[in-house]
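Researcher: Here's my situation. A collaborator sent me these components and asked whether they could plausibly form a single complex. I don't have experimental data yet, so a predicted model of the whole assembly would be a useful starting point for our discussion.
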Amino acid sequence: MQNPHITQADIERLKHNFGLDQPLPIRYLHWLGMVVQGHLGYSTSNSEDVATAILERMPATLLLMGCSFFLSLVIGVSFGIIAAIKPYSAIDYAITTFAFFGQSMPVFWFALMLQLAFAVTGITAFGYHFALPSAGLASNDDFDLGDRIAHLILPTIVLSLLSIATWSRFTRSSMLEVVKTDYMRTAAAKGLDRATIILRHGLKNALIPVVTIIALSLPGLVAGAVVTETIFAWPGMGRLFFNALGQFDFPLLMGYLMMTSVLVVFFNILADVAYAWLDPRVKYD
Amino acid sequence: MATTLVPGAITAPVGDDDEFQIERHGIWKRFRKHKLAFVGAFVLIAIVLIAVLAKFLAPADPNFIDQAHWSGYPLAPGVAGHLLGTDENGRDLLSRLMFGAQISLTVAFLAVLMELVIGTVVGAIAGYYGGWIDYALMRLTDVFLSIPLLPLLLVLTAIVSATSSKAALGFGVIVVIIGGLSWMPVARLVRAAFLSLREKEFCEAARALGNRDSRIIFRHLLPNAVAPLIVQGTLEVANVIILESTLSFLGFGIQPPTASWGNMLANAESNMAIAPWVAIFPGLCILVTVLAINYLGDGLRDALDPNMK
């Protein structure tokens, strides 16, 4: 199995150069020491600087996650409000059922089904044939906004499904709590119109707990991005991570986990701050 | 000796028998009102039965290649007696789905069991003792929660396959990795319950009687925290089924030729244009099972704890 051109002494020398002759805890401390100094090491598959490799792919991921975030926020919150305004009505049942399906759907299978419907066969309706690209960021290097948007549609929908489902359920139950409160009755008694009551008085209060849920679902969004980017060949951090996985490129994998964890912690802090700002009654010790 | 009062002989206060009966009826009545939970329970029982009896129900061996009819492409549903067709290797899809159910459900069940045990122990110790123990355990929980779960699981499975081989990614490894890394919500739940339960009079009484801490925790406090645990455990089964199938789909879960719903989809993408059924059926199985469990969990939540949202 061994390459005859490499002597045992060479192997030992390489192991020593890469620090692989050290015991695992020492290697970990060495890695940690580097990370603290802001250095994530080099990829073992192509010697690229890990931090550079990840940061290079970050814009594509942030674009996808950003689009998905706004789509989920708009649709999820409006679904929640609509369902809560008329609880136990037909539309409430429709939205709740949709949310259950969304939460139970395996993301990768949803992606495959969308590819099957929109990319492999395409859908013919109203005399038009709809087909969407199912791989990559763009068709070619020339910037074409329409083409870029077409490439974004399927991955965004796939990545958004779970958060739309979760956020709409939370908005609904939070809104149902708020609707019962005294200040909502007061607002109605003052003669405000229904839209103002719901949006100005209701939504503002109902969204406070939702902020926490949104921050807490960020790790899920990161995980979803790995699956989505892999299936749609989206050139982001998630796909980089998945490719590194197949090559056992551990410095890159560690770097990815480190950076996404820092991102998660950062958003949790942001959520805590936002929570205190939205609800002045909240005090942190 | 026989006449002395044995500490701990008094069990947890679940009320006298009559009260307990009424309470139980209330649970059943509320559960029955949730029709979809009822349907979910039936669907789940049916799926579990099919999985358990797969050996007798399956029309073919899950790894048998129908060389008489197969010509390199998946056979369509109905062709040559294959009710749902075959996969790209000419293996009967229905049989693979049935045996895949066995794997997916067993992994989910065992992993959740592990989660519940670890989460309960960590949460109980943190909630019961409080103070710096609570602080340390909860910060540990936070650390685990801050790393996105799926990438972490993937890295661990990659470590296992790098140190030995991909074939080493057996069933047990997947269970331990998933169960060992998703106990955090359970720990938080149990801790929250214990923080309020330990201040109750019956807990003080149990302590005054000279019970050991372990006995107070497991015999007196834990039975009172079991309702949210059942709900969380049920919903976690659904989560783990999705996690396992995602890992297997990406090639870092259950390894072929063993069928799991996830790895059956792994090669489906390349044949999707000519054989969409290979991609449709396994995913449909996951969706239906997970949906059934989620509805069941929702019904259990309404029934067991009407105040919980």
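Model: Some features of this prediction you could bring to your collaborator: Chain B touches chain A through 41 residues (CB under 8 Å). Residues 1-16 of chain B have pLDDT under 50 and may be disordered.
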